[in-house]
Amino acid sequence: MSPMPLWVADLQKRRRGKILGREILFLESTDSTNRRAREEALCGAPEGTAVIAESQSGGKGRLGRSWISPPGVNAYFSLVMRPPLPPERVPQMTLMAGVSCAWAIGRVTGLDVRLKWPNDIFIGGKKAAGILAEMEGGNSPRQFVILGIGINVNWEGAGMPADLRETATSLRIEAGKEFDRAGLVGETMAELEKDYVLFREGGFSERMREEWTRFALGIGKRAMLTFPGHQLFGEIRGLDRDGALLFADLEGNTRRFTAGEVSLRFDPDPEKGFTAESAETAEKN
Ligand code: BTN
User: Which of 45, 97, 156, 169 has the greatest number of C-beta atoms within 10 Å?
Assistant: First the structure.
């Protein structure tokens, strides 16, 4: 374990919850806090164990992407969660985490935080934070979920790779000032814990669905939905009671999706025009 920097020691001191962050493993650098938290979970780390790193050399994003993780400016942490949850309900937990993060980041920064399905955190039209939930051992008593959160906190535009600047932002860029990472991560963990306790008891609630919808970007808007092997053009309709995305294709058929990615900025294929593709892996509503 690396010596804790002041901000992590401060986070530990100011922690308000009982579960999340009760054990903090700090690493100056690691490949991925999700990977490291998985190792800890396999060795029996209790629920709520947090792995925090100052930098990641192989930070993982959703859909096999990487998460660029320079030192000293941002927040990268992963939580070991042990919810008694069938694997098909893990997506609900990530929606919940998106809502918790949106509340916490909004409260700390005063910025207008939005969610793009399933749980990208957007500010000013660009991505400021992301969540990666990975489940292992589904349906076995030893199952766990690693909930990884990356927040671009004090990253300056000049430090970002040029191509990333087109689509990504940071709290500092948006607010024009720096933020204390201990306060931000502490608030995020506290909000997550509150929502998680309710989720564990009562599942994906109507209140959670409403909150997600309140933060959501693009409801009622034209969008492109990408899911394994397919692209579908249509309109985002919202979430159903189980947290699946309701997406209407151009023929007006609404289907539910629990995985994939939505794009609100896209160029329709000029060859094919703006057409719906078949959605073999989607369930009909
Ligand atoms: C995404 O939006 O694609 C998800 C990004 C998740 C990044 C975080 S940073 C901390 C944790 N460790 C990882 O390797 N990934 C997550």
Answer: 97
